[in-house]
Amino acid sequence: MFSIDRSIISPLNHPASTSGLTTPVSRTRSITDDIVLDRAIAVFWQRGYAATSLRDLTRATGLGTAALYHRFTDKDGLFIEVLRRYADKGLSERLARLSASHAPLAAIQAFFDELVAMSAEDPDQRGCLLVNTALDGASMSAAARSLVRARLDEVETFFRAQLHRAREDGLIGAAIDAAAMAETLLGAVLAVRVLARLDPDPDRLRRLVAHTLSPLFPTQNRLTQ
């Protein structure tokens, strides 16, 4: 769903402990938590939570088991911090930028334009880590599930806020229920991200989005028919 620096998607290019068990203290002190999380994001994003082993994580991050556990308690603790950093970098910043730089309906349109572009241009078809995690709910802890729900709620809140602004500006009528429409838009976000992993055809994704947004742009919809 959210853009993120592609320099983190090849964790095996980073120097790491060959044993997966120990790393010199001088090296571990130079590896910040943010670096560890960015490297771990790449592994979880590529393999998913359940398929990611401790050896995968030690090789990718350059930290031994003891160092990882000291910082993050366990694999689930690391995963929760990974989800939080992924969302902070790719979601919160984007929502704030769109809210500040666009009129309300334009902000919603821009959100979906960017979503389709990043989904169609993802060569590995990895999708969104938050959405992937939500779909893999069986292996997700209650804490991770709560975090994913909260961060996806931010997207729905963004849509609802833009719709309220649009109503205040006279851009949409009272017939559009802002809360219900925000839920529909979030559903479309999830649909785009899942569909793009199976068939990243940008034209198909744009048609899905156009149909979802048609109640907000009735004149534009008529002109394109």
Description:
The protein is an all-alpha fold and 225 residues long. The protein folds into 2 domains: 6-74, Arc Repressor Mutant, subunit A (Orthogonal Bundle); 78-216, Tetracycline Repressor, domain 2. 69% of the residues lie in helices and 0% in strands. It is built from 11 helices and no strands. The protein has helices at residues 25-30, 33-47, 54-61, 65-72, 75-101, 104-120, 129-135, 142-168, 178-198, 202-213, 218-224. The two termini are 29 Å apart.
Put simply, the count of helices is: 11
Percent of sequence in beta strands: under 5%
* CATH class call of the largest domain: Mainly Alpha
Secondary structure: helix percent: 55-70%
| Helix vs. strand class | mainly alpha
Molecular shape: elongated
* Topology, number of strands: 0
What's the alpha carbon Rg, rounded to whole Å?
A: 20 Å
CATH homologous superfamily grouping of the largest domain = Tetracycline Repressor, domain 2
